[in-house]
Amino acid sequence: MLGLDKKDMTTLLVVAALVLLAPFILNPFPANSAMAQFNAGYPDLMQRFVIFGIFAIGFNILFGLTGYLSFGHAAFLGVGSYSAVWMFKLLSMNVIPAILLSVIVAGLFALVIGFISLRRTGIYFSILTLAFAQMSFNLAYSVLTPITNGETGLQLTLEDPRILGQTATESGGIPVTNLFGIEMRGSETLYFGDWSFQFSAGYYLCAIIMLISFYISVRIFRSPFGLMLRAIKSNKTRMNYTGLNTKPYALAAFVISGMYAGLAGGLLASMDPLAGAERMQWTASGEVVLMTILGGAGTLIGPVLGAGFIKYFENIFSKINESVLHSWFSFLPESVENGAVWVAEHFVGGGWSLTLGLLFMLVVTFLPGGLVEGGQRIIKLFRRRKADDGAEQRAAKSHPAE
Amino acid sequence: MDAIILQFLNGLDKGSAYALIALGLTLIFGTLGVVNFAHGALFMIGSFCAVTLSKLFTLSFETLDPTRKDFLGNPLKIKTPYVEQWFGPDTGAVLIDWAVPLAILFAIPIMIAVGFIMERGLIKHFYKRPHADQILVTFGLAIVLQELVKHYYGANPIQTPAPEVFRGSFDFGTLLGFDPNVIIYPYWRLVYFAFAAVIIGGVFAFLQFTTFGMVVRAGMADRETVGLLGINIDKRFTIMFGLAAAVAGLAGVMYAPINSPNYHMGMDFLVLSFVVVVVGGMGSLPGAVAAGFLLGILESFASMNEIKGLIPGIDQIIIYVVAIVILLTRPRGLMGRRGVMEE
Amino acid sequence: MSNSKFTRRGVIKTGAGVGAGLALPTIFASRASAFTNEPTGSSVTLGFNVPQTGPYADEGADELRAFELAVEHLNGGGDGGMMNTFSSKALKGNGIMGKKVEYVTGDTQTKSDAARASAKSMIEKDGAVMISGGSSSGVAVAVQGLCQEAGVIFMAGLTHSNDTTGKDKKANGFRHFFNAYMSAAALAPVLEKLYGKDRRAYHLTADYTWGWTQQESIAAATEAVGWETVRNVLTPLAQTDFSSYIAPVLNSGADVLVLNHYGGNMVNSLTNAVQFGLRDKQVNGKNFEIVVPLYSELMAKGAGKNIAGIVGSQNWDWKLEDDGTKAFVKAFGEKYGFPPSQAAQTCYAQTLLYADAVERAGSFNPCDVGAALEGFEFDGLGNGPTSYRAADHQCFKDVLVVRGAENPQDEFHLVEIVEVTPVGQVTYAPDHPMFAGGNLGSCNPGA
């Protein structure tokens, strides 16, 4: 179906189910319980999960397949965001032209940077991409402020022309981003006993685009083009000896992944019309590298898992504070409670990055293939148990027969 | 002319910091083939060795002065450092004043120990793993190290002054026949430059003139063959890692008076030191040192008002522009060798 | 068996949910409410969004302490702090309008993106009806914009750029902290008195919007008293070593160096300037002087002895003698063991001001709260008589000119107050050119 074999189709369906049911899956705890702190099913974070998923999927097309490690991919995300916000300022609040422009501009930007950077390989390539991205960041923060609004970030104002839309709403506010009238920040809440589930229009737009992106990436992985890219990774010199010029293929992969990053940037701006220069900083480029490796570079679903993992800790763990900890441990005697809070404090609130750093080390040490390998091991464990069960049953059955 | 001389001095000083950090990084790259994102954290730990020692020296006992009040209206607590009590106020004051240079002695064993533990406990399991995994694990380690420092020292920069005699600045211009106050340069920065020169010279001499160094250099050139010769390269790798950590740490100790240490200073230097190493060329120690000085000097020149007037914002991007130009004209940086980290 | 049942139910529910979500696009929560996150239960949730990682984490920690203290006092705990000295007596120590005050915290990371993500989670997930905190103007402007769109009140924390209540002002946003213009207006006469009329200033300015607005303000104010601005040099934000910017200063003919830097930038540039011995030099027959227009306690601590004798401005200082300050310092000091910073004071005052405005308005509706804050005149929160101007939502109050102490008695006495500049001297017209170009818009209650 859809040109995919059975295994890939299953993966796609599983991803589709997970993404579409995310409002339920991510809100497993009743809204008023102490565990509600761990619920991640609110629109902003769900949008971030899928948007950074798109970013990482795109990055994986370059890194996972060709082995070229770009350390400047955040520049494309940033450029995408700026283009989208400018579209909202000048044209209209409809997200379609904004997203299209962000993909196109990021693609062109990637073409230029890729064309130059791909003249080198290995770490030389990485540093070239890093240099371009850092230049973009530094300039966007300072000299290019008329275009980027610098430190504050590019925002919508009540004075923007918006030639195809309205400058301001009747009530005097800035209009909101929409898809032909469906407001991106619109959401419905479904109450189910103590549980509440939020369905956001913006999230489902991102989710559908993410599924399409995922599908395209599966097709690329399985195509002759994908095979060629893998060949670049395994042995570039030999490829060149066969008379094939590998550069156009690598450049195509670079531009495609740059367009994915631009798409992610455009979506970020569509969900929340702001574009800040920090989106281009090397830490942001590093983050997508970490997402991909953490999830499992070169695997289809790994980058998405890695993106979700990092964003979850950043957004959920940072919000746990001392008073929350005290409420969790209040069942303990006071001295033990204080001790437990003291220990836990290191890892939550301002310590969320410590937790993340420790998990990076643990995952990469014990799961060389990233989170995907962890998942595979668990599945294997179940299969083996099932197989064991089956064997036992057979054994049990065979007994009476004797 | 005077402005150029002045910026040249600045560049030498900046360059010596870059060169020291890049030297350690390239030792690890070159000998062990490990991409160490925790190298900036080693520099940071070095700086905090200086902070810790000066905190230890100023560890104080409190006496109450009932004549004066603290902010809540209670009697003021007067703090007297223990060292002043033990060694007398004069010796104590000298110790506190000289905390940063003394921290060198304190930092060497600590940094070597940190290096050994890192290599034996973590890095050695990653020699055969892809560079991507090395990046992830060392980045995780860098975060953990800096968060631990943040937890105990806070996020605010901590002032760690140089000894009294090195404060203030030296008037270079008068030596060269300029008017007074035209070319002045802080004493401590001159000390830093001299210190960097000694360390860089020491590392080169060590690699050049000792058997150990010879084996390591051979290992950098062709690791497999050296292994086949039956030389226990593993033990030497551990020592090299300790040495690299010590170089980064010492660079950090001496840097503490120049910029007040804070927990994320390692990350600030990380990207820059990678650029320096790569511009210098992978696997080349002289390349790393040369690139460090080159970038430091060019960065200083770019911040001159005359040049900023011509190209606004050039000082923001000069390092990256130079890196791009060099990497495009010289495929393996200034002095890189073929085949190192090119896949 | 149970597995398949769960899936079937899930599918039906999602189908319904997706259908509803697409067919009836409404804003934020769907239960009929007059405004975003209307508190319906026995409690009300406030969101405190402060930097917990990154260079301003310590300042964020101090803001958080102040918020916790304010919540304690609002709920009737502790000694009541500045609630006892506050001129408005609407607050009773029984929460806000009888609802117990609860709070959530988040990490801005001093990045607009992360700050907005954190504020959004407070609004979407935790039902926060007000957001406060922050330690930089970029973050304040970004979060203020978000609160305007979402329909909650934003009570700015530490933000000093003119833009926050200038070109980026928003109807739902309120700033208690002072701004660059006020710093300059307060500093210029003191500088004139201390250093004379005939001075030549060299500016080093952090190359982003806050730096620019401060440089513009200081240059204008000092030129008005007769100073000459020799040069303004922009320094990159990520710069840690300022030697190459400081080296040419002595040779430029300038006899004053103005450092328009904040946080780590300021600590480093000042340390570098002192290393170069600038303060021991004589230029044009006068002592060379350094000015740091915006001071903070943490920066003073980071810069150590280098700040001795250096003049700057502050929004508030714990050494002030009024009753509000004394009550706050006592409550804060007894709880945490050290005096509060100006960031803590502004956050504490903002929380009380918000709670009081709700009580007076009799509603949590952002439009009613905003109306109650606009033009509100009060006293007893540590800054003397203060008013929230309706035209731009900026507080007007006295500004402190401070100087680094030569011989501090302890680590809490690093700065001493030189002068309390009266509010009249720092007031400006809402359409002053440095604040022009913005539009408050109309208040947005959300739903």
Automatic annotation (TrEMBL), chain A:
Transmembrane helix keyword on record: yes
Organism: Pseudooceanicola pacificus
InterPro entries recorded: ABC_transp_permease, LivM-like
The protein, known as: Branched-chain amino acid ABC transporter permease
Top-level taxon: Bacteria
Membrane topology field: Multi-pass membrane protein
Molecular functions (GO terms): branched-chain amino acid transmembrane transporter activity
Coiled coil (residue ranges): none
One cellular component term from this protein's GO annotations in UniProt: plasma membrane
Membrane-spanning segments: 49-69, 98-116, 123-144, 201-221, 248-268, 288-313, 350-372
Major localization listed first in the record, in broad terms: membrane
Protein localization: Cell membrane
Keywords: Cell membrane, Membrane, Transmembrane, Transmembrane helix
Pfam families hit by this protein: BPD_transp_2
TrEMBL record, chain B:
A cellular component term, taken from the record's GO annotations: plasma membrane
Top-rank lineage group of the source organism: Bacteria
Pfam families: BPD_transp_2 (PF02653)
UniProt KW keywords: Amino-acid transport, Cell membrane, Membrane, Transmembrane, Transmembrane helix, Transport
Topology in the lipid bilayer: Multi-pass membrane protein
A single BP term in Gene Ontology: amino acid transport
Major localization listed first in the record, in broad terms: membrane
Keyword Nucleotidyltransferase: no
MF terms (GO), sorted A to Z: transmembrane transporter activity
Transmembrane segments: 16-35, 42-61, 98-118, 190-216, 236-257, 269-298, 310-328
Location of the protein in the cell: Cell membrane
Recorded family membership: Belongs to the binding-protein-dependent transport system permease family. LivHM subfamily.
PANTHER family cross-referenced by the UniProt entry: ABC TRANSPORTER ATP-BINDING PROTEIN (PTHR11795:SF442), BRANCHED-CHAIN AMINO ACID TRANSPORT SYSTEM PERMEASE PROTEIN LIVH (PTHR11795)
Identification of the protein by name: Branched-chain amino acid ABC transporter permease
Organism of origin: Pseudooceanicola pacificus
TrEMBL record, chain C:
CDD domains: PBP1_SBP-like (cd19987)
Signal peptide: none
An individual GO BP term: amino acid transport
Domain Leucine-binding protein intervals: 44-403
Matches recorded under Pfam families: Peripla_BP_6
Keywords of this entry: Amino-acid transport, Signal, Transport
Top-level taxon of origin: Bacteria
Similarity-based family: Belongs to the leucine-binding protein family.
Name the record gives this protein: ABC transporter substrate-binding protein
